[in-house]
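ESCALATION

Customer reports they have been waiting on this structure for their group meeting. Please prioritize. Original submission:
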Amino acid sequence: MAKKTEFTVEERLRALYDLQLIDSRIDKIRSVRGELPLEVEDLEDEVAGLEVRISKIEDDLNQFNDDIKAKDIATEHAKTMIKKYNEQQKNVRNNRAFESLSKEIEFQELEIELCAKQAKELQAQIELKKQSVEENNVKLNERKEHLKHKKNELGDILKETEKEESDLLKKSSNYESKIDESLLISYKKIRASVRNGLAVVAVERGASAGSFFTIPPQVQLDIASRKKFITDEHSGRILVDKELAEEENEKMSKLFTSI
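Update from on-call: job pushed to the front of the queue and completed.
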């Protein structure tokens, strides 16, 4: 069984700082994309929603048209029945039969009036639905055009950054293997808790980068000795000395250029 490689504190500090530089660069790449993926997703959902809405309105339109046709058929049937009853009235022999047919004729005339009223109401609904379809189609076309623009924008950014991000993620994984699991967990926890994702920072002008709290001289000497891991008591970030940070920045800058 192969013996696991042991790394000194300084080697692990360098690996940790390198990992921070790599992860920060990945963060920068992702920030360039910004909210675009979410914008594209939201627009896709909105387009799909509009298409469903338009389809439903068109289904309603088809139903209203079918209902109007049914009213037309009912009207024609009522007219036919009126004609039939009028003919029958000519041949009746008593007032009772005549009155009965008159009531049937009156009923069919009311049926025709009712069908005309309902058809008019349906036609008004159709006009409103047509207007709604038109408005939603205008909105849909606008959203589709906007979505196309955003997809092209996202595609261009992905084309520029996808390979670099993939290579950096592999590098990040490689550097993680040089770091103790417990230390790596702490690093990721700190990264997740700070807005800029900086879990490892250099000491600059007697304070940790981005902080105004002075680090005691003895602690600065301990950091510069690279014999143990020291965290900033105010932010919780892991600290490295400025010289180490400059060396690793130069080294990683060359790595980034080669990717």
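Sent to customer with the following note: The chain has two domains: 9-33+180-258, 36-162.
Escalation resolved.
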